[in-house]
Each structure stands twice: as structure tokens, then as C-alpha cells.
Amino acid sequence: MADRCVTLNSGHQMPLLGLGCWLAESHEIQGSVEAALEAGYRHIDTAALYMNEEGVGAGIKSYLAKSKKDRKDVFVVTKLPSNAMSPEKVERLLKKSLNNLGLTYIDLFLLHFPIGVKGKSDDDFFPLDENKKLVLDYGTDLIAIWKEMERMVKLSLTKSIGVSNFNVRQMRKICAIAKIPPATNQVEMHVYMQQKELQEFCKANNIYITAYSPLGSPGRTKFMGEPTGSANRMQPLENPVVKLIAERHNVSPAQVLIRYLVQLKVITIPKSTNPARIKSNFDVWGFRLTDLDMAALQSLDMGETGRIMNSTETFDMRSHPECPF
Ligand code: A2P
Questions:
Q1: Going by C-beta distance under 8 Å and a sequence separation of 6 or more, which residues neighbour residue 121?
Q2: Of 72, 99, 114, 247, which is most buried by a Cβ count within 10 Å?
Q3: What separation in Å is there between the alpha carbon of 116 and the centre of ligand 1?
Q4: Which residues in 108-118 are b (16+ Cβ under 10 Å) and which e?
């Protein structure tokens, strides 16, 4: 059981495998969260931006009531959205997430993205101008926001804090001033994009990586109507190396992709709303990939070209000084 958790630099334990909730609607996610907790998951990853915190909270509440387990038995992650990337908004938005989730504290609160956008309201996550371009906030001050994140720990509104979609330069910037260093950095990571530089930095600084899109987000060839990096290539789930390793271990390709990351001690959050896939995605503790399997999977890395979530025309953020990609 101990190998299913890691100890964060905050001293808190975090389960290595969690349920990703991106692109799941609030009404469907409640059942998925319950199915996940029943299957043994103890870590649920959501965000204000996913607009499903209420459903996630309802799923947790219902499971805890049925199973007679305690709040502390579930590790909950949520995130500060880009339209709240200014110090004066952090506490209010964290309290809003707590209210949505029906919780009194978050286990891990993340900055969702290093870039701020100028939304007109809390729910205006992707404000677009008349040319259909994202309205960026060029004044994003990561250091001032991080200090406010630290205050959220002192207020006991969250137990740990971290970041998401930060590159190594941005990690260094935060670590240089942090009284409470980020516990995790949640980034896109799968066999095609293995984040070598970030892995090295995080390892050296006692920070865990959380991998989103660990299965390569199959089927996601578009984001907001525009092609993503995976539009013209074979999915990791279809890759012959992955399939061969899966056959050898008598498991599914998805289980190989998940096992690869957790065996590297990368926190992993496959998303599914399908109860059977939720269950099988968690069933990765009964086999171990050999050194040869690990090396073969490592060789699938494409570096930056493996990225799915590339900047699209609408989401061109390259003019922002904190663009992480
Ligand atoms: P579904 O929710 O219908 O199961 P990622 O976590 O890499 O972003 O991938 C999420 C996508 O992968 C979702 O579309 C999800 O669909 C699908 N998915 C999740 N688990 C599996 C699996 N075991 N095999 C195939 N596809 C899966």
C-alpha cells in the first residue's frame, strides 16, 4: 500500500494514482468519482476551470457517507484559474472552490497556468477579443501570487500548494523566493512527451510531477476547434511497443502507460467517466514493468514535438512573458 503514495515536501502523503476530471461534466462526474473511490482511488483531481467541482464534491460526499470513511481518506486537488491570476483574487477563488466542493480544506491547491487572462467574471475563463484571440493579462506577477498561495496554507484552507503547466525557468523563479516550495507541478506527460528537463529539476528539488493526459488523451485531435499536436500521429494506446509490452504482461495498453508513470514515481491522473475503464485504470499494482520494458517506453519520447496541448491560433500565448511552452 505504501508504494501507492508519495510524501510531498509539505510532509503530506499523496496517492500516486488519481482520477482526472477534465472534460467531464458536473452531472456525469458525480457517478465517476463514486465509481473511482469504490474502485480504490483516493485522489481526485479537478479545477475551477473544469466547471465540475460541484459534481466532484457530491461524489466524494456520497462515497464518504456510504463507506463511513473520513474526509482525510480522500486527497482532493483543485486549481486557481487563469482569470484569477492576481494576488487579490486567490483567497476568494479558493473559498469559492471549497464552497463548490462542499469541503473545508483542499489537499493540494495549484496555480492552473502561469499566464493570467482578463476575464470579465469568475466564469469567463477564456475571454476572447473581437478577433477571437485570448485576452492576456501581461501583468501576471508569479511571485506576488505565490506569496498569496503560501498564505492560503497558513489559513489552513489548503494543506499543500503547487503549480501546473510551469516550465523549469518558472519553477526556479518560484523556488528562489518560496518559503513554502511547490509540492508538485502538474504538466502534460506521457510516453511521447516525457518532460526530461523538468523531471531532472523536480527530482533535484524534491518536487513531484503530476502527469495529465497520461494516455495521450486519445481522440483529442482538436482543442477549441483547432488541431492539437496529436492530430496526425498514432495514439500511444495504439503504439506497437506499448501493445507488445501489454501482451507480455497480459494487461491493457492503458495499464502499461499508467504503470510506466507510477513506476517512475510520477503522480498520474488518467481521466475517464466510464466505470469499467475507471476500474481497470486503477488495476496497475499487480504487475511490474521490467527494466527492458521501461527502457523501451522511454525511447518513445518525442520531447516537445510530442506535446498534445500546443498553442492553437486562438490560444496563441507566445507574446506573454510567462508563456511556458
Ligand atoms: P472515457 O472517459 O470515455 O473513458 P487522458 O487521461 O490521457 O487525457 O485520456 C482521457 C481519455 O482517454 C478520455 O477520452 C477517456 O475516455 C479515454 N480513456 C480513459 N481510460 C481509457 C482506457 N483504459 N482505454 C481507452 N481509453 C481510455
A1: none
A2: 114
A3: 29
A4: bbbbbbbbbbb
For ligand 1, what atom is nearest to the CA of residue 277?
A: 23
- Of residues 86 and 310, more confidently modeled: 86
4-36: pLDDT as tens digits: 999 999 999 999 999 999 988 878 899 999 999
Amino acid in the structure at residue 34: E
Q: Which amino acid is at 178?
A: A
CATH superfamily of 2-314: NADP-dependent oxidoreductase domain (3.20.20.100)
Q: Which cell is 262 given?
A: 507510477
Q: Would you say the C-alpha torsion 279, 274, 94, 205 has a positive or negative sign?
A: positive
> Cell numbers at residue 50, please?
473544469
Separation of alpha carbons 283 and 18, rounded Å: 12
Cell numbers representing residue 133 in the block: 484571440
Summarize pLDDT for 140-167 with one digit per residue, the tens.
Answer: 999 999 999 999 999 999 999 999 999 9
Q: Which residue's CA is the nearest one to ligand 1's atom 18?
A: 272
**Which residues lie with the beta carbon below 6 Å from any ligand 1 atom?**
20, 213-219, 237, 252, 254, 270-274, 277, 280-281
Give the C-alpha distances (Å, rounded to integers) separating 99 from 24, 153, 308: 19, 17, 32
